[in-house]
Amino acid sequence: SVDVPRQYSESTDVGVNFNWVSAVDGTAGLNVAWGIEYTWSNRGELFGNTSIASVSGRVPSDAQVTQDTLYRTEVDVIDGVGKDINSTLLCRVFRDASSGLDTFTADAFLLSVDFHFVCNSIGSRNDQSKGISTP
């Protein structure tokens, strides 16, 4: 689960990065696909059905996967419309080996997942909203 930080610019989209390595070298043109299944709810709302986003490709985008090199695969699809600083994402991350995008037959090791979002303040002025606090 991910509690949305107070710096989050409400109703904006969230990007997800998968940071990973391989224990072996690959051949040219092979890719690893990663996926995230998620649902996102504001406080007091029901969690809805989950959505799944899957992506391949990597940064750096060299010709082949190289052993022990740190790669980043980016997903920029989590729609934040209507979401506020009192919201939570429930997530499942996975290697999407069933995807036609995953052509790398060796193991890939997920090191971390990070979320990127637009900030419009250092935090919030009160516990419930980004608005101006009252005395």
Characteristic key phrases:
135 residues; mainly beta; four-stranded antiparallel beta sheet; three-stranded antiparallel beta sheet; 0% helix; elongated
> Over all CA atoms, what is the radius of gyration?
18 Å
**Low-confidence segments, ≥5 residues, pLDDT <50?**
none
The geometry reads as elongated
Helicity, in percent?
under 10%
- Taken in chain order, the helices and strands follow as EEEEEEE
Structural class: mainly beta
Measured between the Cα atoms of the first and last residue, the distance is: 33 Å
What is the average per-residue confidence, as pLDDT, rounded to a whole number? 88
- Strand line-up in the sheet with most strands: 1-6-3-4
Largest sheet: 4 strands, antiparallel
Number of strands: 7
Number of alpha- plus pi-helical segments = 0
How would you concisely characterize the structure shown here?
The protein has no helices and seven strands. The chain has strands spanning 2-3, 14-22, 34-42, 51-55, 71-78, 87-95, 108-117. The mean pLDDT is 88.
If you had to describe this structure to a student in words, what would you say it looks like?
There is one protein chain. By secondary structure, the chain is mainly β. Helices cover 0% and strands 39% of the residues. It has no helices and seven strands. Strands 1-6-3-4 form a four-stranded antiparallel β-sheet, with no helix packed on it. A three-stranded antiparallel β-sheet has the order 5-2-7, with no helix packed on it. A hairpin with an 8-residue loop joins β3 and β4. The radius of gyration is 18 Å and the shape is elongated. The relative contact order is 0.37.
